[in-house]
Amino acid sequence: MGRLFPPEASSFAGSIDGLIILVTVLAGFWLLLSEGFFFWLVWRFRARPGVRSQYLDGTEKHVKRWITIPHGVVLVCDIFIIVAAIRVWVTVKQNLPAAERTVRVVGQQWGWVFQHPGADNSLDTADDVFTTDDMYVEQGKVYHFQLQSRDVVHSFSVPVFRLKQDAVPGRTITGWFEPTRTGTFDIQCAEICGIGHGVMLGRIHVQDQADHAAWIAASAPSAVR
Amino acid sequence: MAATPAHADHGPQGIRKYLFSTDHKVIAQQYLWTGVFMALVGGFLAYVFRMQLAFPGVAVPGFGVVSPVEFNAAITNHGSIMIFWVAMPVLIAAFGNFLIPLMIGADDMVFPRINRLSYQIFLLSAVLILLSMVVEGGGFGGAWTAYPPLSSTASYNLTPLGATLWVVAVGLEFVAFLLGGINFITTLMNARAPGMKAYDIPIVCWMIVIASILFMLSVGPLIAGAVMLVFDQTIGTGFFNPATGGDPILWQHLFWFFGHPEVYVVLLPTIGVVVEIVTTFSRKKLFGYRLMLYTVVVTAVLSFFVWAHHQFVAGIDPRMANIFTITTLLISIPIGELFFVVFATMYGGSLRFTTPMLWALAFIAEFIIGGATGIYLGSSGADIYLHDTYFVLAHFHYTFFPITIIGGFAAFTYWSPKMFGKMMSERLGKIHFWGTVIPFNFVFIPLFFLGLRGQHRRIYNFQNFPELAELQPLRVLATSAMLVMMAFQAVFFWNLIRSLRKAAPAAPKNPWEANTLEWTADSPPPHGNWPVDQMPKVYRGPYEYGHRDRESDYWPQNEPA
Lengths: 225, 561
Prior knowledge:
The complex is a heterodimer of chains A (225) and B (561). Chain A is of the alpha+beta class. Chain A has helices spanning 13-44, 61-94, 209-219, 221-224; strands spanning 101-108, 111-116, 129-132, 134-138, 143-149, 154-158, 163-167, 173-177, 183-189, 201-207. In chain A, the strands form two sheets. Chain A has a five-stranded mixed beta sheet, with no helix packed on it. In chain A, strands 4-10-9-6-7 form a five-stranded mixed beta sheet. With 561 residues, chain B is an all-alpha fold. Chain B has helices at residues 5-8, 15-20, 24-54, 68-104, 112-132, 154-157, 160-190, 203-234, 248-282, 289-302, 318-330, 332-346, 355-378, 380-386, 390-420, 426-452, 472-500. In chain B, α9 crosses α15. Chain B is globular, with a radius of gyration of 23 Å. The two termini of chain B are 28 Å apart. The interface between A and B is large, with 92 and 101 residues.
């Protein structure tokens, strides 16, 4: 309780929170202004004995500008928000930085399967580490994830990363993130996927370099055997 | 009754009246009471899942322990019922049927039998959706958006019968509203009283007709999609199944191409209702009749170009999101304008705070919050995080609750004197009003904060999520406020039943001193609405309040100059 957002644990989490705050400032300004004006109208023009309503039909120009001027200001606010939103979107979803690690994330009813590259740092080799529901990543590395689904639409959501992407059967969707804070955090499925949707959760373990190397060594297929 | 015998007795009487009547007022009441009944069902479902969320695993009084299957079915059918079987029948069909002929001075709809057929199909669809919740395997639980392959494949959703009945029910509901819409549009175009020009039509009639046009233009692709979905479910086609070359995302496009205009389909009638009420009780002419009408047309057109903002993170090409962010945010301009027009109408008025006026004003105050929070979700960058969280849920309840419940009560309390010929108690009406609107905010404001903390939707027990478990007090607050709000609905029904007693005061023809034509008919209007030799003629627009040249501050449309 107490805090507004979960902690920020990815390189782009701060820019998404910043965008939310920008919208709060601009939309909040309009919200307070219009609610304030509205309640002023309700109070100021309440029916009083002997006071008749005015006859205004909204055709005179000097009256109409009370609508056209706020109009223009709304448009300017919209443009600010559009530019900020697209800048964040392009960073997070459109332009992927070069990958330092690639992991595969597969959703299925009702769990997540993670395929981590082993010590050779490439996927689909003999030393890949497979886990279910627990994902292990290294702090400060740029990750690409290849998101797939075995059955229905799922959504890979890591709130502390501010990251969400649907997993669609029949497609591989590639996205990226760079963890910036060590710790263990929730992974959700954010798209309803059947009766087990409510228990489809994972945990992501962001480790520093030494811990992550140790985890890889301990999890190598040879070590397990 | 003032109607001539020849006209008054040609409708069926007794029980046959409610099965076979083609009178627009009877059909309006059929839609209204079916919608009210379905609202009770939808409300009960909300009670069940909100109790489970606040007190997970505890038996819900009147229901029992909620299983995940039942939870998913409850949220799915709550959404479907509230949109398709409450908002649409009450706002469009009930008030459209009741108001359009009365407000334009016609004796009935132009296609009374199509009108009756529309209700009969609607009733069938309502029976089917109720059945779908109790068949073997349980009700469909794939959310009201019904994304395949979950919705299309029995081995994934585990509710084969419930899922198919759900799709068929929704499809039939669409058919009912297509028939009704044809009737509204044709009636407004062809059956207006002599002298009523296009700009003399009361705004609410325009709004219902524009909503019907919007519905007709948007629903076609989804009806095709619904047929494809039923085929996928029942005869093994693979339109939405990637294993056989289909595409699950195709459904999402078909659904939201309809789904977003649908928001305006239910919004516009309420905007119309609010305009009627605000002009009447502000004693003010509507500020900019044409401006409002054109703005609504612009909003309606723009609403066809925003649908993919529901799919930013669905796997569409990320470049597409940029276009839809722009179109989505631009819609704030015409919507903002609608509210500026209403503000300008209140300015300089003499506001009478009757119960319907309070509901109309509450709609404005609450809907602005729904509109402003939509900006977050239209901004693609912010939507990455907020998509499918309780922030979305709180946002659209701040639009749909004001539209459906607040707008519905506004219309009901305003036109009930005409509909039933009885005045409801203002005192009870105001108790009901405050008892609904204050708790409403305590239900949904906490949900915005849950969404900002990352709480995702359609989860039956958040205690399973380490980061979300500690937020339980907010969930308990929302559920408690909901219980208070639901308890206050008893006041409404008591008020209504009390007012319908024989001994209760009868309503005069024009209790609110309004200008539009329905207030010149008897309360309630007989079959045919006006005696055949006294059909109204129109001499002016509907909002001539507070005219300088007149002693009285209103000027009915039918009064010769």
